[in-house]
Amino acid sequence: MRPESLYPLFAPVTALTGVGPRLAPLVVKAAGPHVADLLWHLPYGLIDRRFMPKIAAAPAGRVVTIRLRVDQHIPSGSSRRPYRVLCSDETGVLTLVFFHAKADWLEKLLPVGEDRIVSGTVEDFNDGLQMTHPDHVVPPDRQDEVMTIEPVYPLTAGLPAKIMVKAVHGAVARAPELAEWIDAAYLRRQAWPSWREALGQAHAPAGEADLAAATPARRRLAYDELLANQLALALVRANLRKLAGRAIDGDGRLRRKIVAALPFRLTGAQARSLDEIDADMAAPSRMLRLLQGDVGSGKTVVALLAMARAVEAGAQAALMAPTEILARQHLATLEGPAAAAGLRLALLTGRDKGKPRQKILDALAAGDIDILIGTHALFQEDVAFRDLALAVIDEQHRFGVHQRLDLAAKGHAVDMLVMTATPIPRTLMLTAYGDMDVSRLDEKPPGRLPIDTRVLPLARLDQVVGGVKRAMAAGAKVYWICPLVEESEKLDLAAAADRHRDLAAHLGPRVGLVHGKMKIAEKDAAMAGFAGKDLDLLVATTVIEVGVNVPEATVMVVEHAERFGLAQLHQLRGRIGRSDKSSTCLLLYGAPLSENAKARLNILKETEDGFRIAEEDLKLRGAGELLGTRQSGLPEFRMADLAQHGELLATARDDARLILETDADLQANRGKALRTLLYLFERDAVVKTLRSG
Ligand code: ADP
Ligand code: MG
């Protein structure tokens, strides 16, 4: 259970003064739902309001704080004209300008004949000075509140800066004094402040230098976040390892038959990865291995050969895919080679119910199924294997860490192989998987041609449709990807449906549509049509639906490519270029596009090396522009910036490892403090796996 000291931080943001029901959704959108989220919402700029000139000395374009006498209100008269308030001091006059403001509110805020402290940007207008929508207006006795250095926070449309500043300050004030979780000697060496001091400093910058990632306060907060991440991963790993492993060894009889049935030879990378997997399985400890390889690098066959080994040893294996379509796809791909070795495969998804499902479960328990392929339906409690020895998880970043735990619990000492197609840079790898063992398929199957990738503005859509038409006439199959943005899924689905209608009007009836909200049967039908003879073009909304293998597809169009993460675009593109025919990928962007965004898309033009793309993306992506990671499913950090704090990550990993070596259940004093840290970063699930302390 979350410690009581943290309760104030996990209250909803409405608990803060100034955040009412109207503004709360905006605060949530900008920062997050809890008070704690505001602590992690660091300022990116500051406004110095300490400059207090007389009116005559106030320079246009600069933020000033001025003491004024309110002389006269001039209501707007018409909705197009602003409301003006004439003010002065002994050196000159200044007009305050308000658009769409309520007169009675302004009369109260700026009573005629009284003095007010006003802060904002002055500007020249005709012959006089004016200030439009001052940031602050207070009576003279509250001058000190205004004449400060004000942090500037990321906002969202409609959320006044003032409210955010106040809310964050309220959150920082609620931060309790917590027992130190960083090693005392390390803390001293780094000369870092305590957690609470660090929050105070990070949110009260005194100058530009205090906004830098390298300040002690920011480094400390980044370290806290990274340590929570690494400790959580280390705990998951420790948990998986807790159950003793077992040695799985095969005699190669099934494997030989499968390999003989394959229409190709294994690549060097595939053979090497298999050796690594074999060694892990043969060892008496549990395997926890990541098989990392670009789309199309041939992970599936490696998985099959690993599973065959488990069967050779007299046990069973499971292969879990993130979606039903992918599970079916795996079954279809594996059926042929598996049959050659007499392996018995079955499929279990959420769609199987009643008697047919029971039949599968009975066969599984009796050992009449060697390899079970499915979705997360494999986790359900009543799914019992006779003897599960290997679980392969085709991750594609759809599963969380706890789901890996669930599947591992299905067998004693189940070996785990996690497959991912996301090329993760080394730094990020550590944040997503901790120190899992890794096999890399860094070599493409032979005979693949490079993909011709082009970056074009959406304005050239007509031309693109013309080109697609010609390609289809020449026998090409085409993927047409529409973006899906979380905030407005409905609109995006409508856009995809519209696009489908348009394209069908131009290109004829061999144009299909598939998206996440369709019924499974409809989806399957569309996919089957595209894989088969019925459809030549498939409009699709998300990655998942195109996570299938249609080698004949040679053209891909991506609309609003700028909305995707680079890694995701790279994965999407991997769906073409899978045959001996040359392929073309058209990335269409919505104009205007920033230089940075254009540079990102151009990386895809230059290379097909997923690892290079990922590294470049990490370099190019400024802090705060996290779209890429969010969409690829990698963890996002609020305070740690891996481009700047990368070296802290390695320290956090070593620290986490050391902690668990000496205090595996986090029972000692520092251990208890670390539990609080885990709760602070919402790793509740992982704390639950510990013995209570
Ligand atoms: P991944 O799962 O890594 O995206 P797949 O396992 O789906 O890739 O393989 C993509 C395609 O490449 C499949 O059609 C598969 O049969 C083929 N393939 C796999 N390994 C080889 C190889 N060594 N040589 C030639 N083709 C291969
Ligand atoms: Mg695959």
Quick overview:
This protein has 693 residues and is α/β, with parallel strands linked by helices.
Task: Summarize this structure as a short list of keywords or feature phrases.
OB fold (Dihydrolipoamide Acetyltransferase, E2P); six-stranded parallel β-sheet; 25 helices; Rossmann fold; 693 residues; globular; binds magnesium ion; alpha/beta; 21 strands; binds adenosine-5'-diphosphate
Q: Describe it for me?
A:
- With 693 residues, the chain is an alpha/beta fold.
- Among the domains are: 52-147, Beta Barrel (OB fold (Dihydrolipoamide Acetyltransferase, E2P)); 253-441, P-loop containing nucleotide triphosphate hydrolases (Rossmann fold); 451-607, P-loop containing nucleotide triphosphate hydrolases (Rossmann fold, 3-Layer(aba) Sandwich), CATH 3.40.50.300.
- The chain contains 25 helices and 21 strands.
- The chain has a seven-stranded parallel sheet with strand order 11-12-10-13-14-9-15, with helices on both faces.
- Helix 7 crosses helix 8 (216-242).
- The radius of gyration is 30 Å and the shape is globular.
- Residues 622-633 have low confidence and may be disordered.
- Bound molecules: adenosine-5'-diphosphate and magnesium ion (MG).
- Residues 264-267, 270, 293, 295-301, 421, 445, 549, 551, 578 line the site of adenosine-5'-diphosphate.
